[in-house]
Amino acid sequence: MSDRLRVIVMTQNDRFFIPENIYKASQVCQIVEIVEVNCKSSLDNKLKDYYKWFGFTQCAKMGMLTIYRELQKYVDRMCSYKKYHGFCSVGDVAKALSVVHQIIADSNDRNFVEHVRRLKPDLIISYSAPQIFKEELLNVPKYGVINVHGSLLPDYRGCLPSFWYLYNDERLGGATVHYMSAKIDDGAIIEQDSVDISDCKTMFQLMKKTKKLGGELMVKAIGDISTDKINVRPNESEKGSYYTWPTVEQAKEFMAKGYKLI
């Protein structure tokens, strides 16, 4: 396979990690469109929950960091993306790469699926896309849909692995690139690696490590598929663990252990 794969990126709004990973992927494939999914389960729409879990001070610190990142974004735009390379938002990295960018509410909407079909992608790659994709969308790309998840699957399937890794006092984290199915964090594993998280006291610190690793693994996975050298292994979900969103009580326990959001 000599030509670069035609790829659609599906993700959600992010200012800190995902844009750079999209850029890295663009170096090994032809990204034809970047799609942000803004739905009920998107992290931007969980702000009230974050306030309940982590309180005013932690949310204020996160807010200040977000404001600073927004300022960097506007500086980057004035510098024609030569300062931060579009890494301050998903929309900006799309502009920096001259790639079409759109925001949708439902990945499985019939009109969107038809739109994807017209683009004839070889592959869809997901960075924290906040919805389960149904079979109709999964079956469109020639080589399927792959996702990067911030844990060592099949362990820590589900929501907020950065929270649960710390909550359980884990010393080793990781990331996994796997084929997507109609089940959560299911599908055969393509690439996986671990990273030391013993020095992480905040979710942000942990995500910085696992998102970086995940971006590198996605590049490898795209290369595996494009060169027909893919070597998958089972993702035995029945042998792993699954976590949903934390309760307020669990968030209090998390904080009592000395862990923080940021």
From TrEMBL:
Protein name: Formyl transferase N-terminal domain-containing protein
PANTHER family: METHIONYL-TRNA FORMYLTRANSFERASE, METHIONYL-TRNA FORMYLTRANSFERASE, MITOCHONDRIAL
SUPFAM superfamilies: Formyltransferase (SSF53328)
Any one GO MF annotation of this record: methionyl-tRNA formyltransferase activity
Organism lineage string: Bacteria, Bacillati, Bacillota, Clostridia, Eubacteriales
A UniProt-annotated Pfam family: Formyl_trans_N
Domain Formyl transferase N-terminal: 108-222
Domain of life: Bacteria
InterPro entries: Formyl_transf_N, Formyl_transf_N_sf, GART_AS
Cellular component terms (Gene Ontology): cytosol
